[in-house]
Design a protein that fits this description.
305 residues, mainly alpha, 0% strand
Amino acid sequence: MSDRSSSPLPAAPSLVLASAGVLFASLCFGALPFFARSLTEQGMPPHIIAFYRFTLAAVVLSPLLFLHRDKARAILWGMAAGALMGLGWIGYVSALRSAPVSVVGVLYMTYPVFTLLIAWVLFRDRPPLRAVWAAGLIVVAATIASGPGAVPSAALPALVVSLAAPLGFGFGITVLVYRLTVLPPLARIAAVSLGSVLGLLPLVMTTDAAAMVPNGGEGWLLLLGISLGTALVPQLVYSVCSPMIGAARTAVIGSIELPTMFAVGVIAFGERISLAQAIACALILAAIMLSSQTRRTVAPHRADP
């Protein structure tokens, strides 16, 4: 995928503001486990949490799709990617109930590996050598973070299922790069968000109504936070700012997302960061730095709604 960092950069003040925007959005994305785990601790099912997260963006942005109805094929690709991402996100939320946030975060950050594999298999796009090395570092990091002794054995099945999230995200990125470029950024988010909602809707319709209502005012605030503070607002900021600074800079600044997840686990849930998890985090960050130096970076513009 192309790296826009070689394009003419905006003036210094605009570059600083755009960089700050990507930093803000990445911090918001990294804070997502706080809202997801807090809601599961209140008894809300993971698929309902996922549904709420995507619904606001879908409602607000979906009218844009009518303006681009001549690009129906691209919209359908986006919706298909969104459906897979939404269903995969159920595994991510489920894993947060039984595994440390840091480990779930490291496994989620394996999405570049899935991105490269899917792009290679489906779109015949052979990855550059630097990206392959970066992907290898990510695999090593995931193995260290989730290997024997690093997490309770009872959490391993949930961690395996959580890989559906980076798989879905990787598919979403490839669709973004190879099928959605004909749509403007906000329409892309709209298509993916709508697809996520529609993909989750059958599960939602079979859920007891009581399980869909949060517990009191705190629950409603958590839902507002996960839908507005980790989805719609940072998506909009990210979609505007990331093209201004290029994919390489976006990847480097966006790498703050993983340490933010670690901080959420420590501060909000009293988790302790083991040596294995710290090494895994360092390897992930090294992989992002390595991949950001190639034209087709392993950490591309974020497509996650």
